Amino acid sequence: MSLEKSTGINKKPRTLILGMGNPILSDDGVGLVLAEKLRGRIEGVDVASNPMIDLSLLDDIIGYDVVYMIDAMTTRGGKPGELKRIHEEDSIGTLHLFSSHGMNFFELMKLGRSIGYKMPEIGGIYGVEIGDKVEFNESLSPAVENKLLEIVETICRDITG
């Protein structure tokens, strides 16, 4: 019998918000910026950030029950600053979920399971549209910057239910 059933105590799942992106490629770093803006906003939810999906990302997510990820994305006709909920079948259009310089996030999750790790459930993956122009700059474009508060509020509502 589980502790929860035997004691009547409801254990809150360990939850992580993970921001992804490159901090020197302007809007590509929006996931990192949003993660920092979400830090401390949702009680009991941890926040981490990582510039690349590779095997070291397993260290960030193992031990959590649920993970939410935020990343920049580009899609045909997307408007900068637009927030989209991503599903595995949609991951082709994102920068880090499927990247030439990293691993596919969903493949990383499968790999972790295949080698015996208890991988977290994916609570949600958010893509922030950045358009097709990425440049060297440590600041976000005004179009994306102006949407940050709205995006933070949307993600908070989504996670807290």
Any overview of this molecule?
- Helices cover 29% and strands 20% of the residues.
- The chain has 161 residues and is of the alpha/beta class.
- The protein has a five-stranded mixed β-sheet with strand order 2-1-3-5-4.
- The radius of gyration is 16 Å and the shape is globular.
Topology:
Elements: H1 3-7, E1 15-20, H2 30-38, E2 45-50, H3 57-61, E3 66-73, E4 83-86, H4 105-114, E5 121-129, H5 142-145, H6 148-160
Parallel strand pairs: 1-2, 1-3, 3-5
Antiparallel strand pairs: 4-5
Rg calc: 16 Å
Distance between the termini: 28 Å
Separate helix tally: 6
Q: What percent of residues are in strands?
A: 15-25%
Low-pLDDT runs of 5+ residues are 1-7
Key words describing this protein structure:
single chain; 161 residues; alpha/beta; 5-stranded mixed sheet; globular; disordered N terminus
